[in-house]
């Protein structure tokens, strides 16, 4: 329950504040997606609302309700839309000022707070300046730089870092995963536990295979294949971040093989022979430009550009490099 791999500094910081009764009215948990921010936010909520002696006890009615995502005094706001405007923020503020139902404290967890527009952040600023005494606000963000300095200065910031490969490996072994898959998952993780866990999800593995097929076809494709290739990205719009990660890692591996052929440095080690074959077909310069194109595509999508047009431009650019 609420097990976060690594992040010892974050755990210790919150533990000290909790034991010394120096809990902030608002927090920002920041770091790469998949490093445990959401799980730790629930751990914080459980600690603050626990009715047992050793907090969180994981046994009281409050802890169990939080585990089951049905505690009336823990409100989770997903923030999945790319841009959260003023109207959405007003709804969040209303939620913050709603009184607790069961106890004397309420927890509001706002995910992807870095998606809130500048106008929306300014709207929430007054609430952070004069927060209700019975509410703790926990905001989650991947990119701290997207959050106004005036908001940052009013929050306790907990920074989530990448986790060591050994820590991830030990965690996966405790889950009794296959040892061969564990090695590839750790390589694939880039220090992010959530990414390593994806490697044991059948749907993700299927997406990986499909994306690798696209990765092999893209540099050799013709203009007439644009619609077919673009359709894959459109069909999987909700998985685009995973797809771009898989593409980037694939082309990165080919560069590694062209340089040294050291299998230990290859992330997609289970496709080593295929990568060697691909490395003979594409030049360094072309691979470098493809990776830059993928990076530019990721940035444009973060800026709310037209999805289909952005993908079509990416496919065309890769065809033409």
UniProtKB/TrEMBL annotation:
PANTHER family: DNA POLYMERASE III SUBUNIT DELTA, REPLICATION FACTOR C / DNA POLYMERASE III GAMMA-TAU SUBUNIT. GO terms for biological process: DNA-templated DNA replication. NCBIfam families: holB. Gene3D superfamilies: 1.20.272.10, P-loop containing nucleotide triphosphate hydrolases. GO terms for molecular function: 3'-5' exonuclease activity; DNA binding; DNA-directed DNA polymerase activity. InterPro entries: DNA_pol_HolB (IPR004622), DNA_pol_III_delta_C (IPR015199), DNA_Rep/Repair_Clamp_Loader (IPR050238), P-loop_NTPase (IPR027417). Its EC number is 2.7.7.7. This is DNA polymerase III subunit delta'. GO terms for cellular component: DNA polymerase III complex. It catalyses: DNA(n) + a 2'-deoxyribonucleoside 5'-triphosphate = DNA(n+1) + diphosphate. It comes from Fonticella tunisiensis. The lineage of its organism: Bacteria, Bacillati, Bacillota, Clostridia, Eubacteriales. Signal peptide: none annotated. It is an enzyme of class 2 (transferase). Residues 223-319 form the DNA polymerase III delta subunit C-terminal domain. Keywords: DNA replication, DNA-directed DNA polymerase, Nucleotidyltransferase, Transferase.
